[in-house]
């Protein structure tokens, strides 16, 4: 009998959920506007009903295996969402405990978005068969999931994998975490915007971005401009990749991964981000690791990547 | 019946080996002058005879469980020693394969010194009961062993844990690896010597070190001077701890350890190294991790630490 799991991707605006089989095929998908449910119990009730509704529409016999959740500040050990700045539920939300009232007999697993992406790559994506790799998620911020010995590194408190907050050499940009020079102030959708504005300040040449306010500029616009050959946009990616490559050269000395997978928005710039990143990593890496470590695009990145990643948590747990 | 393993610590000058039980008690120890055996087969023959000699002297019934080896550039996956600069055996030495001719029916496990120290701390020392921790060995260079999910991180090629070669902010010192600014050019026995000479260059005040040539100065002398209250030696430790603390603040974001254990020579300076390291780590760390991560002295450091660490490889393997 086919086995199905539910993957839930919780974002500040929307929560997307879907039914997924072991091969990563999706059988229906639903959306809840997270923001509209400041009451967490009501949110869960809505999520439960949405899932039940999807299950009802399945037209073959199946076995229901569990629920995997990717959420900002999801704590794997405690099954909680803790102090997530972009969610309406304040403090510590006992997600798994409460959801067990609806699904008592199957695993319910929560972790943060980047960790879910890493497990997703391992179960369905570019890291299938790998035991040691890193996933770097390039969204609004920079997230990361480190896998060693075939297991995700959660650390003693479930907060491991904060590569976005290593401090880069000479970094001066203010970070939302209260410190300065964190990697994600340079390498992320927000970071590349800041870089574009730095380049506008440093250079004299004209650019389409000279007519755009900071709050109107998006990383997508920079990506599009780079793909169209815009020199400033290409330089912004060069600058970004150069910094990312250095940070990866350091990260690699710790876990020695087989591959590093770039996931999310900025990775869509293709060679404009992959080439400078690879070049900079190789130029800065310890000799032991030279020309050994692949930098790969995501194998699940697309419309349903986050849901797939979340669903993969269950398969990985069952296979332990 | 009591179970015994052999631990072997291979150094450039000497190899020390000993019989160890599960609790870390030693039952005899022997030494081979590594340097005198440029022929690896002769070295192994000598090591085998030494071990057999120790076993003969055991005056109780025992079961022989295996051999654990800590060696520079020991490769855990391949059972080899690879291109070790300080050993006379060149290229790739198939240590485990060759030693199996003598001990066919028990596990023979090799890894590098820092990894052996980490497993030693986990089995007998300060990390007993921990699943996520880092051991930093402060010898001639800086080695490290990262443990996550109760397993040592070897990485895809057994070269993980090279924390000594992360590049520090503003680091300009030449490193033996061919690059500049590696952590171990500051934080190690050699590093603190370089720091003492930098301070002699920067400052005017008198110091006992003004009469000592670079090649005559040792880290032990700096430690002794610090413990005697010498301001320059204390400042050298302050400088060293400050840099180590920053590097640990970054490393912690990746694996989120419960504790960091400082092992080896420089750790003997006690508060002179622990206090600035802790202060600097806390001042530079991401808020999530503040006041959560212990910095501890080794629980096995002493005369037999390296042999204990090597022997622990076998116990850990048997318990997997």
Provide structural commentary.
The structure is a homodimer of 320-residue chains. In chain A, helix 6 (231-255) crosses helix 7. Chain A is built from 8 helices and 13 strands. Chain A has 320 residues and is α/β, with parallel strands linked by helices. A 5-stranded mixed β-sheet of chain A has the order 3-2-1-4-8, sandwiched between helices. In chain A, strands 11-10-9-12-13 form a 5-stranded mixed β-sheet, sandwiched between helices. In chain A, strands 5-6-7 form a 3-stranded antiparallel β-sheet. Chain A has 2 domains: 2-122 and 303-319, Nucleotidyltransferase, domain 5; 130-297, ATPase, nucleotide binding domain (Nucleotidyltransferase, domain 5, 2-Layer Sandwich), CATH 3.30.420. In chain A, a hairpin with a 2-residue loop joins strand 10 (142-148) and strand 11. Chain A has helices spanning 40-56, 95-99, 113-123, 189-202, 219-227, 231-255, 271-284, 305-319, and strands spanning 2-10, 15-21, 26-32, 62-70, 74-75, 80-82, 92-93, 108-111, 133-138, 142-148, 151-152, 259-263, 294-297. The model of chain A has no long low-confidence stretch (mean pLDDT 95). Chain A binds chain B through residues 130-133, 144, 146, 148-149, 151, 153-163, 165-167, 169-170, 177-179, 246, 249-251, 253-258, 284, 286-289, 292, and chain B through 130-133, 144, 146, 148-149, 151, 153-163, 165-167, 169-170, 177-179, 246, 249-251, 253-258, 284, 286-289, 292.
């Amino acid at each position: 009998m086919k086995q199905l799991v539910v993957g839930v991707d919780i974002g500040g605006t929307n929560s997307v959920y879907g039914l997924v089989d072991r091969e990563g095929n999706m059988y229906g998908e639903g959306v809840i506007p997270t923001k509209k449910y400041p009451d967490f119990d009501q949110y869960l009730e809505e999520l439960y009903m949405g899932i039940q509704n999807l299950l009802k529409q399945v037209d073959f016999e199946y076995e229901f295996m569990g629920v995997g959740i990717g959420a900002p500040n999801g704590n794997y050990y405690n099954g909680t969402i803790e102090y997530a700045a972009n969610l309406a539920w304040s403090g510590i939300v006992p997600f798994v405990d409460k959801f067990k009232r609806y699904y008592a007999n199957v695993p319910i697993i929560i972790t943060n978005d980047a960790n879910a992406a890493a497990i997703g790559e391992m179960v369905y994506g570019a890291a299938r068969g790998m035991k040691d790799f890193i996933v770097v998620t390039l969204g609004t911020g920079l997230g990361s999931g480190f896998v060693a010995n075939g297991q995700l590194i959660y650390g003693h408190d479930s907060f491991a994998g904060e590569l976005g907050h290593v401090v880069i050499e000479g970094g001066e940009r203010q970070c939302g975490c209260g410190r300065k020079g964190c990697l994600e102030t340079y390498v992320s959708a927000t970071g590349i915007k800041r870089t574009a504005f730095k380049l506008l300040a440093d250079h004299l040449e004209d650019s389409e971005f000279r007519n755009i306010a900071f709050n109107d500029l998006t990383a997508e616009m920079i990506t599009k401009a780079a793909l169209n050959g815009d020199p400033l946009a290409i330089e912004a990616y060069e600058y970004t990749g150069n910094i990312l490559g250095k940070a990866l050269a350091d990260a690699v000395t710790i876990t020695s991964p087989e591959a590093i997978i770039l996931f999310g928005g900025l990775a869509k710039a293709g060679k404009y981000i992959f080439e400078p990143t690879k070049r900079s990593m190789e130029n800065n890496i310890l000799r032991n690791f030279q020309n050994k470590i692949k930098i790969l695009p995501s194998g699940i990145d697309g419309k349903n990547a986050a849901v797939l990643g979340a669903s993969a948590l269950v398969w990985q747990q069952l296979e332990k």
